[in-house]
Structures are given as structure tokens and as C-alpha cells.
Amino acid sequence: MKRIFDLILALVLIVLFSIPMLVIAALIKLMSKGLAIFWTDRIGVNNRIFKMAKFKTMVTNTPQIATHLMKNPEDYLISGGEFLRKYSLDELPQLFNVLKGDMSFVGPRPALFNQDDLVALRTAKGVHKLIPGVTGWAQVNGRDDLPIPVKVSFDEYYLKHRSFAFDLYIILLTMIKVVKREGVQH
């Protein structure tokens, strides 16, 4: 049922947001060099690497590390990048990752390929067996503000309590958090 829900919702949202996504892509192309979509190696289900799509919000030569580990992440933002991040508009291309099956709407956020500490802890807790999500229980409980052990404890809670109703609740909380811009540092 989860996969069917993901497919239907992804298709509906792709149609609904197709014009805004085209506008965002055009604006990014006008304001920066390179492609409007940034492909990043992420850790997927069973710790397999997949390519996750995001709208480009940072300059081309930005180090591929978690934003919170950068000294001055704002120095790497392209014009308009902060706005896209604050409202999670940079995440819209992930609808295609959901359509492909690399991601679900709800699950643990996919780790960067080099976040070995996060991957190891998730693997120890069995969280690596879950398909990563556009949003998740940890996302709505702190997002960028959470230290890795706390984030993984939320991921583990989701693993043990996941259900369709819980997913709908997380999606609702995500919409509220996005509108309020809660938990976004950069």
C-alpha cells in the first residue's frame, strides 16, 4: 500500500508542481553556472548508493559534506538558494526519486555517501532496511538541529512504529514545519 500511495502522490505532485519546477529551474540557470538540478550520492535502502536529485542551491565547487559541518555555509549559497532551502523547494526534484522507487515520501532522510557515523549507527539499529524518505520522523522533530544519535533514535522509533496512519501524520507535520520554516539552519 505504501508504494502505491507513493506512486500516486508523486505523479499528482509532479503534475501539480511542474510549472513551478520549470520556473525554479529557469531562475537557477539565470543566476548560476551549471545545471539547475544537482545529483548527489546518497545512501539508500540496505546501504546501497543512489543518485538523489535536488535543485541547486549552492555553487558548483561546494564540498560534499553535511551543511551543518561547514564553517560558513551561507558563503556557498547561490542567489535565491536560501529561499529555496527555507521552504524546501530544493527538494521538489526528489518526487522523481520517489517515482523511481529510490525514495519514499516518509522514511529516514538519506545520508550523504560520506556520513559513515550516521550510516553505521542506522545499520546497527536496523534502520538501513527502510527506504529513505523525502521527510521522516526525525525531520519533523528537529531536522538540522538534531545530533546524529538523536536523529537515529527517531529513525528507529519510526522503524518500530511505522504505519500508513503514522506516515500521513508525518506528512501533515512536514507541511506545517515547512510553512513555519522550522528546523532549517541554512
Automatic annotation (TrEMBL):
It holds the Pfam family Bac_transf. GO terms for molecular function: phosphotransferase activity, for other substituted phosphate groups. Residues 2-180 form the Bacterial sugar transferase domain. Keywords: Transferase. Belongs to the bacterial sugar transferase family. This is Lipid carrier--UDP-N-acetylgalactosaminyltransferase. It comes from Candidatus Sherwoodlollariibacterium unditelluris.
